[in-house]
Amino acid sequence: MKRNRGPMFFALLATVPSLFPLIAAAPAGAQEVAWKEELRGDIRNVLRNHYLRDLASDSRSIDCLAERGDTCFGGDHEDWRCRRVYDCRTPAARLQFVMELIGAVDDRPDDPFVVAHAVYGLARVGRTQNAVGLARRCRAAEWWCDLVMGLALHRAGRSAEAGERYRSGLQGADAELACRLTDIRELLDGSDGASYRRLPCPGPERTEFEERFWWLSDPLLSRPGNDRRSEHLTRRFELLLHERLRRAVYNRRTLPTYHIDVTRRGHPDSWKPRGRDLETWKSERGARYRFTPASRVGEGIEALRYELESSRWDEGFTPTEYGTVFEVPGQVARFKDGDSLVLAIAADLDAVPFRSPPTRFIASGGPTGFFAEHRFPIGDLSPSIATSVASVPLLAAIEAFGRGGAVARMRQGVMPLDTGRLVLSDPLLVDPLRPALPESRAEAVDAMLPQTRIGSRNEMVAYFEVYGLEAGQMMRVSLALEREGAGMVTRVLRSLSGREAAPAPSVAWTEPASGPTHPMALSIDVGALEDGNYDLKIEVAGPDGSVAGTVRRFSVGGR
């Protein structure tokens, strides 16, 4: 039986969007959900009435365009179907659609698709708080209600809570549906995609692959949850619902290309006519950032690389809870302290339009592994720290938060140091304007450059440590500069900690070790180097023939 709703109720809904979250829910037990079935009954009629009423097209039609501010159905994904501005729904018609969705749930809160499509419909037209409230009234299977609530919470800008609901819902869902929602093959290229498609689902190998992928793709490690993963699950769940919507309303199936594009970029937010067809996803607004790695899984975490700004052809996501997002340069170096790994890390925030940003250092050893966090004093535009971390593959980052939601991040994959008898630390680049070369790690970290760019200076100072020799043992040190793609640099050094050296492809000398940890600092002439990328290569040989090497990539000039 339909409930009679008077004008006062309509006015209350329009002015108090948080009304429905006050209604508590008591999800039912784990009955099955026939999620492959087509839409029937009242919810099908509600959708058809909203999307098919009075739509027409002729040669004189004026296309509804998002760029012009037209919102045919209230701004939802189906706006691109309109061909006439005067087909756009009035505020009263959009409110009627909202009320019909709510009424359908009043009558059938135990029907999985009624609740899901009502929540999805409210989210499409921007009534996200009403969507959260309606999701709380779900009386279908508990795991299905969790998925519906995950959709509502994420679209309401509460991605951390959405992630928890999705995790709970996927644990209870049947295997085929869980595999469909978690599938990431559209986000993978080349060998990664081929490897992933060979993994059986359900299966522990695929789960491990996905967990690692989302760990590396988390936009901000210092924020609870992973909004990029929540966005992916929301897109996949919405696609499942959208397939039923298209068949119920238009009697058409979703094209595979649409499925791929939505998974990668989200629903279309902009389009342009092209004859009788439309080009969709013309705007950069809806998918501005690519938080997933540009490097491949097989390359290892030490080769981790991001291309944060996405193009129209990349996968992408624009967060609603924060932004703009800046990628900033930094420097990371590894040292040993007994059996512990010490990480020195710095970032250059000088170019970011922040004032006194709250800044954090994070080291993460995996989705459920080691985690460390440190907060820097507000106002430090070149934050640096040296701290002990677990000797495991790590994701190291510095993240800064400005006013208005803007954020900056520096991120790098870090492997443990070698475990051989003779080991070298990473070379740490130090401010050459210091009055003297650093004599200890602490001095070097205090003066470490916030990034590995030398700029227009004529001198580069590098600090590193040699591990594994006894005091007095002689070691042979060799040093070379190599330009990216061009081999050794002919003119290498003017001075090495006071040692004069003639121009040569490399230089070498011997000296005694001062102990099990031998610190070294070098001043290197880079004044004659052309702009570009270079590798500083250091090799140390011990008296027993053991050899260890290390490399520091740096750039000269540019910004």
Principal-axes geometry comes out as elongated
The overall pLDDT average reads 85
Low-confidence stretches: 1-30, 490-498
Helical fraction: 25-40%
Quantity of strands, as a count = 21
Strand content: 15-25%
Features:
single chain, 559 residues, alpha+beta, 5-stranded mixed sheet, 5-stranded antiparallel sheet, 13 helices, 21 strands, 23% strand, disordered N terminus
Description of the structure:
This protein is of the alpha+beta class. The protein is built from 13 helices and 21 strands. Strands 3-10-9-6-7 form a 5-stranded mixed beta sheet, with no helix packed on it. Strands 14, 15, 18, 20 and 21 form a 5-stranded antiparallel beta sheet that branches. The longest helix is centred in the middle third of the chain and has 23 residues, at 227-249. The chain starts with 6 loop residues before the first helix and ends with a strand.
